[in-house]
């Protein structure tokens, strides 16, 4: 009974930390969904350009986000021992590394047109996407800084503040999208550029609010995150870099698989790319739940590791895996039962292309139902491995699973075997399943077993 109560306590702790992070992730995702819905109602070419542009941007963003992900377990371990100085040092250097990454990434988004052409995209689509990214790319600056501060607050178990900020940001973004895309309240209709301006503005406001939450409350003041911010701490910077770069590359391997799938959809045609964008928005909503639970698992694992509590580490991991699995089953059920209703939210009912979009989108969602559990398992395994600071081998496992297995499978099924868009998504199923098996197996092999002793 003692073990059962401990397991339930871990379930409650994971939910207490994870649900606000899930809500914050969903609210953040709502920013992109709002863009997709309104641009889908604006025009199919604008929707296709935003889908391709976000896929391009996302590759860079998730690589840079690795440094913020490294901050979370490091701060969690420091907090478990009451080490305010260490928590401040790694958070600050996470911000430094994010700023440096943005300086390198912005030129890539600015000159994205030639890159997209070299990747085989249609000239008109590439030009439209570059126009979008020349504005939207600046979202990366506040967005990456926000991710570092979210990691800090989550590790300090102050995630509720992030939730309310993200919800407010989603509302602000929806209002700005409506105003700027369609030209309301006397403003010109800016379409695709309007959506990009709305995103940059919203993310900047979110950063200002989250920075206030990380510094102004009484319990946060001792950390002094921005006091003498210009002072380097080379040891802490190296530690965050060494842990964060493999995380970023791991995320790049997975995100690259999805972005490569968008490129292959572009080869098939604008209709397939637009349907891919809508289906991806829907399954990304469910994925954000798993990401939130995975982040909670990282914090719980990091704190258990800091206390050298092997029993809490394994029980917390089991609780997190169970919670993620239950939600995965729920998401599969919803996708299978109401695919048309989900797709209908994103498509203008008067659009002459609606029947074709619905047909392709439904096929993709049925394939997506197949990889829900694998996607949940691989992101949870990654969160747990990061909690114990194991990032290099998972990086290699991700590279093999997604690029040597998943993407070739998708290409083979889509083009030589003639399955088209559905074949691309079957490649995602293969890659995610292999990754889930490898990473879950690694965590349970590495997680130390508690000594055989009567449970308290």
SSE order and pairing:
Elements: H1 2-42, H2 44-80, H3 84-110, H4 112-118, H5 123-136, H6 140-155, H7 159-182, H8 191-215, H9 234-268, H10 270-307, H11 310-337, H12 339-344, H13 354-387, H14 392-414, H15 421-446
Helix pairs in contact: 1-2, 1-7, 1-8, 1-10, 1-11, 2-3, 2-5, 2-6, 2-9, 2-10, 3-6, 3-9, 4-5, 5-8, 6-8, 7-8, 9-10, 9-14, 9-15, 10-11, 10-13, 11-13, 13-15, 14-15
Describe the structure in your own words:
The protein is mainly α and 456 residues long. It has one domain. It has helices at 2-42, 44-80, 84-110, 112-118, 123-136, 140-155, 159-182, 191-215, 234-268, 270-307, 310-337, 339-344, 354-387, 392-414, 421-446. The longest helix is centred in the N-terminal third of the chain and has 41 residues, at 2-42. It starts with a helix and ends in a 10-residue tail after the last helix.
Give a summary of the structure in a few sentences.
The chain has 456 residues and is mostly helical.
């Amino acid at each position: 009974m003692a073990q059962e109560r401990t397991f339930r306590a871990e379930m409650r702790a994971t939910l207490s930390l994870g649900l606000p992070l899930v809500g914050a992730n969903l609210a953040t995702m709502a920013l992109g969904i709002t863009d997709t819905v309104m641009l889908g109602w604006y025009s199919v070419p604008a929707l296709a350009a935003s889908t391709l542009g976000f896929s391009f941007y996302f590759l860079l963003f998730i690589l840079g986000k690795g440094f913020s992900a490294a901050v979370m377990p490091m701060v969690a371990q420091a907090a478990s021992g009451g080490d305010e100085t260490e928590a401040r040092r790694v958070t600050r250097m996470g911000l430094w590394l994010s700023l440096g990454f943005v300086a390198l990434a912005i030129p890539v988004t600015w000159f994205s047109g030639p890159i997209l052409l070299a990747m085989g995209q249609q000239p008109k689509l590439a030009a439209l996407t570059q126009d979008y990214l020349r504005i939207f790319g600046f979202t990366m600056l506040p967005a990456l800084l926000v991710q570092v501060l979210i990691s800090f607050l989550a590790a300090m178990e102050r995630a509720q503040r992030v939730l309310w900020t993200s919800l407010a940001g989603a509302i602000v973004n929806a209002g700005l999208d409506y105003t700027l895309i369609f030209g309301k309240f006397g403003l010109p209709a800016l379409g695709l550029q309007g959506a990009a301006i709305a995103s940059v503005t919203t993310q900047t406001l979110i950063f200002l609010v989250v920075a206030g939450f990380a510094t102004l409350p009484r319990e946060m003041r001792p950390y002094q995150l921005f006091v003498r911010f210009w002072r380097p701490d080379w040891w802490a910077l190296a530690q965050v870099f060494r842990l964060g770069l493999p995380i970023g590359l791991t995320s790049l391997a997975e995100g690259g698989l999805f972005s490569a799938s968008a490129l292959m959809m572009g080869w098939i045609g604008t209709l397939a790319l637009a349907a891919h964008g809508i289906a991806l928005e829907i399954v990304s909503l469910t994925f954000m739940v798993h990401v939130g639970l995975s982040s909670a698992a990282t914090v719980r694992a990091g704190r258990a590791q800091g206390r050298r509590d092997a029993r809490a580490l394994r029980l917390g991991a089991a609780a997190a895996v169970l919670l993620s699995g239950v939600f995965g089953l729920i998401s599969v059920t919803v996708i299978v039962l109401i695919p048309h209703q989900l797709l209908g939210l994103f498509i203008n009912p008067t659009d002459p292309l609606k029947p074709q979009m619905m047909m392709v989108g439904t096929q993709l969602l049925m394939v997506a139902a197949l990889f829900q559990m694998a996607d949940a398992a691989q992101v949870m395994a990654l969160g747990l491995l990061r909690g114990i600071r194991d990032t290099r081998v998972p990086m290699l496992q991700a590279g093999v699973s997604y690029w040597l297995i998943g993407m070739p499978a998708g290409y083979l099924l889509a083009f030589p075997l003639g399955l088209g868009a559905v074949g691309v998504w079957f490649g995602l199923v293969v890659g995610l399943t292999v990754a889930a098996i490898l990473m879950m197996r690694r965590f349970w092999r590495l997680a130390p077993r508690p000594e055989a002793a009567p449970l308290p």
